[in-house]
Amino acid sequence: MAFKALFLAHAPDADYKKHRSVIDTGKYRLLTVVVKSQDEAIKVAKSVYKKEKIDAIMLCPGFTHSDVAEIFQALEGKVSVNVARGDGPSGKISQEVLQKEFFNK
């Protein structure tokens, strides 16, 4: 039986039906989906859990603490929900790129 995880990321131009992938080693199944909004993140998380019975959800750093809690509650505490966060300097690098790419256009 494989460990199954979903990685969710935000992008303003995402189409969650199109922007997705699966990596399956046999022992680890990683599903990735890029969403536009928190509502889409919850919808995708519920759908993937129902279909795949995932063990964990990993979120990009753009998800807030309340977003994490909302996803955890939407899945009734059945799935581990984690956020990928770096140290201070790493976070600053990511934030600068995201600001440039997503918000200054």
CATH architecture: 3-Layer(aba) Sandwich
Assign the CATH class: Alpha Beta
Strand content: 25-35%
CATH fold group: Rossmann fold
Task: Characterize the biggest β-sheet.
Answer: 5 strands, mixed
- Structural class of the secondary elements? alpha/beta
Topology pattern, helix = H, strand = E: EEEHEHEH
Shape: globular
Average pLDDT confidence is: 91
Tell me the domain tally: 1
Strand order of the largest sheet: 2-3-1-4-5
Number of helices: 3
Radius of gyration, whole Å: 14 Å
Helix content: 25-40%
Question: What kind of assembly state do the chains in view correspond to?
Answer: single chain
Distance between the termini: 45 Å
Pfam families: DUF6506 (PF20116)
InterPro entries: DUF6506
Structure description:
The chain has 105 residues and is of the alpha/beta class. The protein has one domain (3-103): Rossmann fold, CATH 3.40.50. The chain is 39% helix and 28% strand. The protein has 3 helices and 5 strands. The chain has a 5-stranded mixed beta sheet, covered by helices on one side. Strand 4 (56-59), helix 2 and strand 5 form a beta-alpha-beta unit. Helix 1 (38-52) runs parallel beside helix 2 (65-74). It is globular. The relative contact order is 0.18. The mean pLDDT is 91.
Topology, pairings included?
Blueprint: E1 3-10, E2 20-24, E3 28-35, H1 38-52, E4 56-59, H2 65-74, E5 80-83, H3 88-103
Helix pairs in contact: 1-2
Short description:
The chain is of the alpha/beta class.
Write out key terms for the chains shown.
105 residues; alpha/beta; Rossmann fold; five-stranded mixed β-sheet; 5 strands; globular
